[in-house]
Amino acid sequence: MIGSKLTDKLKENGYRVIWLSRERYIKAETPRYRWDYIKGEIDKEALEQADIIVHLAGSNIGDESWTRKKKQQIVESRVLTAKFLLETLQSMNKIPEAFISASAVGYYGMYTNENKIFYEKDLPGRNDFLSRTCKKWESAALRFNNELAVRTVVLRTSLVIAKESDAFKKMILPTRFGLGAPFGNGKQFTSWIHLDDICELYLKSIEDITLNGVYNAVAPEYITNKEFMRTAAKAMKRPFLIPSIPSFLIQLIMGESAGMVLKGSRISPEKIIKAGFKYKYNTALEAINASLE
């Protein structure tokens, strides 16, 4: 989703974009070059052409239960792909201008801390799966800076609000049917960012050579899940119900991944704001309204 939207934005700004894909199709509107990190196969022609690499690869964390096999896919599709790109570039003696990588606010841990605001300098969260995954993910990305001296930007992304977002659509689905309610006790914070803003953040990461290191890709509004769901109900002109959707029910449906919606703390965007980034959508109400059109 982010890759497609970002591709359009880059082309609008005069960039030539190519994709690494499962299938080679270089005559497509966006030329595709084949790679398979498991087999160690890649069209090196793509890397020869690339001035900047944007790494968005990763198995969807919300499309199925976190079985042992799924967890392995989630980690390897993020970590081994970055490792494969690095080692291929090293073998080619090719040094790109920048390496821009996704990460996630899951780095801070799947728990709720009502008293603390998390900043990029904070250590990884408690020892849960998402925190461990993000730590490995970022370590793989930052090797580009450490070993190739390539300017590297890592964006710790939150829930992306957009009409195309599967996660957002699943979150507001009960509200569409008039069953909008908080998840669990509703006191956990919901970090979010609109699709337009995350793509603008990637564009800034590409163009602003002063950016280097890790940045929280979250909107400037701190909002609890209860208030987020209330806002969604208001935007959709649907009722907002109390009591909440019980935690045990969400855990029954989602298993271990339920922590993504039942837990959450405040994540600060201060660092990227000080770097000059201006948000198009500053409140959840604005972002949700724009995503219901």
How does this structure look, described?
It is a single chain. This protein has helices at about 1-10, 45-50, 70-90, 130-150, 165-175, 195-205, 225-235, 245-255, 260, 270-275, 285-290; strands at about 20, 30-35, 40, 50-55, 100-105, 115-120, 150-155, 160, 190-195, 215, 265. It is of the alpha/beta class. Strand 8 (about 160), helix 5 and strand 9 (about 190-195) form a beta-alpha-beta unit. A 4-stranded parallel beta sheet has the order 4-5-7-10, with helices on both faces. The two termini are about 15 Å apart. The protein has a single domain (about 1-290), classed as Rossmann fold, CATH 3.40.50.
Distance between the termini: 17 Å
Question: What's the structural domain tally?
Answer: 1
- Mean pLDDT comes to 94
CATH architecture: 3-Layer(aba) Sandwich
Strand runs, count: 11
> Rough shape?
globular
- Number of helices, counting only DSSP H or I runs of 4 residues or more: 11
Q: What string gives the helices and strands in order?
A: HEEEHEHEEHEEHEHEHHHEHH
Strand content: 5-15%
State the name of the first-level CATH class. Alpha Beta
- Category from helices, strands and their pairing: alpha/beta
CATH superfamily: NAD(P)-binding Rossmann-like Domain
CATH topology: Rossmann fold
Radius of gyration: 19 Å
Characterize the largest beta sheet: strand count, sense, and whether it forms a barrel: 4 strands, parallel
Low-confidence stretches: none
Helix content: 40-55%
